[in-house]
Structure formats: C-alpha cells, structure tokens
Design brief:
It is found in: Cell membrane. Belongs to the GntP permease family. It contains 21 helices and no strands. It has one domain. It is globular. The chain has about 475 residues and is mainly alpha-helical. The longest helix has about 35 residues. The protein is about 75% helix and about 0% strand.
Length: about 475
C-alpha cells in the first residue's frame, strides 16, 4: 500500500513540525546570522534528520545520498553551462547579438530587450546575465531618451523566466532530477510557459513600471561606469582583449541554440516515436542534456574560441576561470539536495502527501505554494525549488511525463514569487539601476510576482489540455 494512503499518525505531525522548524533554522542562519547557504542548509538538514527520528548512524549517509543524487546530475550541467556563458561573453558574441537586435524602430526596443535577455540568458546564471545586460539597457535608454524601467523590466523578465523555468539553469535541473521528469518535455513545456510570462511581466508591465518609477539612464550611472566606456562615453564592450574578431550573429545563435534544439528533438522523439524505434537510442543520447551542452561547449570552443583569435592555452584558461564563480552555486544546490533527502527519509513528504490527498489539493498548486513559501522565507529561488521538489516528490509517483514536467514548472513559478530584501538579486537590481528600496519593490519585486502567477496560470491551463 502507498504510505500516503495510511492513516494519519503522531509521527506525521512530528515531522511536519520538524520540517517547519528546520526551514526556520535555515532562514535564520541565512538572514540573521549571515551564514553561507551551504552551511545553513547542512545544519538544517542534520537537525531535521535527528528530530525526525532517523537513526543517528544513518543521518549523514542520508545527507550524502541527497547531495550526491543531485550533484551527480546537476553539477556537470551547471559546469558546462558556465563554460558556454564565459566563452559567449569573452568572444564578443553577446555584443553581436545585442548590436544586431537593437537595430530598428525605438518602439520595438522593449520587445527586443526581452528577446536579447532570453537568448543571452540560455547558458548564463541570472547574476552574470544581469551584469552583461545592464550597459546594453542603458545604451538603449540613451538612444530613445526614455525611462530606464521601460527597457530594464523586459530584460530582467527575460533573465528571470529563463532562470526559473528553463534547463540548464540549476533550479529546473535539480527539480527534474528529484522528480525524475523528462528534460526534453520540461524544456518544451517550459518554453510554452515562458513566452506569456515574459510578455506580461516584461514589455507589458514595463510600461506601468516606467510610470511608477520614471528614472532615466542617469539613475543607473554606477552600472554603466562600473564597466568600461568608449571615447564617446558609451558603455564599453564586453569582448576580451585577446579576441581579434567577433563571431557572426548567425554562428552565435547556432551555438547558443544548439543544446536546446538537441533536447527538443529528444522530446519530440519521446512523444511521437515508439520505444522500439531504431533511431530512438541515438536521439536519446544526443538529446541528453550532458551531451547537448557538451556539444555546445565544444562548438563554442571553435565559434567563440579559435575563430575569434583565442589560442588553445587561452581557451583552457578561460574554461578554468568559468568554473570558479559557480562553486558556491553547485554546493548550495548539493546541500539543498541533502536537505531534501532528509525530509524524504524522515517522512515529511509522506505527511504532506496525506494532507494533499485528504484536502484534494492539486499537486501542481501544492508544489507552487510550498516553493513560494520557501522563496519568501529564504530569498533563494534555487533553494526553494530543490526543497519544494523533495517535499512533493511522493505525490509525483503516478504522474504522466507531461504532468511531471508541469510539476517542475509549477515549482519553478513558485520559486520566483516576490523577491525582497533577503534575495541577493533584489540588491543587485537596486544598485545597478540606482533605485531606492521602495522603487525596487514596486518594479523588480512586482515583476517577479507577475512571472510567478502567470507561470502558475499557464501551467494549470496546460494541465487541463494535456
């Protein structure tokens, strides 16, 4: 019999209380004591294990199993994504995309800015993409002589949506691994969720945000002058001085989109080709995220590397440098996996499953609520995604591949809700755009909430149609 079908017990009450206290410990350690998230999650996980009644000699093994289970899959993909992002930036490929797409009528700039952010955000973490895009946003604002938020919000929306919904970003990948979802199907459905979320929270909300906070480019002077400037006072280019040429727009797009195409081909094969088809094993192999991203990195070593003038030793150095900034992210994701495993082994997931069955709450809504609460408490979308996925995992056992993917996306939507003062992204946006705390809440925080709500609405619509 499924454990979730068993009667409610005192142990179920105990593990729910313990889980709440464990999450509170993590929040207090991160927000008040200023602990690194890795240490906070590790301490919280050990507390949950002990207080849930797991045998003492099994607690560290449970934690290690959770860490290894997540990092064994996600860690490699995060590393490959970082390599691709580093080569994109240093080769000048990001500049090429921006220069090409910013041509045309000023009225189309908000939409183009969202598109640029979405393209650049495919292989990059939010913070890196933000640093790259800010000078571009300000250059565009100078061109049109308009408010910064009119173009800044679409760029932020594009980056944030990719971070919350689309592999190979850490949160979605971790949830896919924990819930045993199909990467290709999640990617395909994630794009369907991402498009309306970017449109509503980006160019459309950007109009309102620009009226609420009508600052110009001068308000974000720090962001522009923090980088280089050319002789005419415009923001400098991100291209590395070792590069003698810039990759073409076509080659840049082919390189960036190649892993998505490979994964989408695999998703199409999963849906339309029978399991015994002769070509299925090949498509499953080339569409696996590890191969798809490895292929993109190897392609980038040519298109963003040797073809722009980087020598082999320079390429090797850049690949090594790309790994340094992601060490913290990888260990936070790993510790989140350990915390998740402690919740699972202690029985928290089963208790929540019993509540969901008794109240008939949709597992998609439950995943969104749990992720949203953890996001509000900890400020970390990745921590919220990993933890929520572990908590609702027992409810995912009987779901179809499509609904498993939708559960990943519902959790991703919840993990983006209302970023505020406990989120590092909140302060990055505030400082780069020269905003006050109140202005950041009215623009960035509201934008994140719109993404979260629109994302959930589209997920629920797709759940009815699929």
């Amino acid at each position: 019999m499924n454990p979730a079908d068993q009667p409610w017990t005192a142990h179920d009450t105990q593990v729910l209380v313990v889980a709440a206290i464990g999450i509170a410990i993590v929040v207090l350690l991160i927000v008040v004591a200023k602990f690194h998230a890795f240490l906070a999650l590790t301490i919280g996980a050990l507390f949950v294990g002990i207080a849930s009644g797991i045998a003492l000699d099994k607690i560290t093994l449970s934690f290690e199993t959770g860490v290894g289970g997540v990092l064994g899959y996600v860690g490699v993909l995060i590393a490959l994504g970082a390599m691709l992002g580093k080569l994109l930036a240093d080769s000048g490929g990001a500049d090429r995309v921006v220069d090409t797409l910013l041509r045309g009528k000023p009225a189309t700039l908000p939409w183009k800015m969202a598109l640029i952010a979405s393209i650049i955000g495919i292989p990059m973490f939010f913070e890196i993409g933000l640093v790259l895009l800010i000078p571009i946003v300000m250059l565009a604002v100078h061109r049109v002589k308009g408010p910064a938020m009119r173009l800044g919000i679409p760029a932020l929306a594009g980056l944030s949506v990719l971070h919350g919904f689309i592999p190979p970003h850490p949160g979605p990948l971790a949830a896919i691994g924990i819930l045993h979802a199909n990467v290709g199907i999640t990617l395909a459905l994630g794009l369907l969720v991402a498009i309306p979320a970017v449109i509503v929270a980006g160019p459309l909300f950007g109009r309102l945000a620009a009226r609420w906070v009508p600052i110009g480019a001068a308000g974000a002077a720090l962001a522009v002058t923090g980088g280089s400037r050319s002789a005419d006072g415009k923001p400098g280019r991100a291209q590395d001085s070792d590069a003698t040429r810039t990759p073409s727009f076509a080659l840049t797009l082919v390189t960036l989109l190649s892993p998505l195409v490979l994964m989408l081909v695999k998703a199409a094969a999963d849906i339309w080709l029978p399991a015994g088809s002769g070509i299925r094993p090949f498509l499953d192999f080339v569409g696996d995220p590890v191969f798809a991203l490895l292929f993109a990195v190897l392609l980038a070593m040519v298109t963003f590397g040797t073809s722009v003038g980087f020598s082999a030793p320079t390429l090797s150095t850049k690949i090594g440098q790309s790994l340094l900034p992601i060490v913290g992210v990888i260990f936070i994701v790993g510790a989140g996996g350990g915390f998740k495993q402690m919740l699972v082994d202690g029985g928290t997931g089963t208790a929540i499953a019993k509540i969901a069955i008794a109240t008939s709450v949709s597992v998609l809504v439950l995943g969104w609520i749990v992720a949203a609460l953890i996001r509000l408490a900890t400020g970390s979308a990745t921590v919220a995604t990993v933890t929520a996925a572990g908590i609702v995992a027992p409810l995912a056992a009987g779901l179809s591949p499509a609904h498993l993917a939708l559960l990943v996306l519902a959790i991703g939507a919840g993990s983006l809700i209302f970023s505020h003062v406990n989120d590092a992204g909140f302060w990055l946006v505030k400082e780069y755009f020269g905003l006050t705390v109140g202005q950041t809440l009215k623009t960035w925080s509201v934008m994140e909430t719109i993404i979260s709500v629109v994302g959930l609405a589209v997920v629920m619509l797709l759940s009815v149609l699929l």
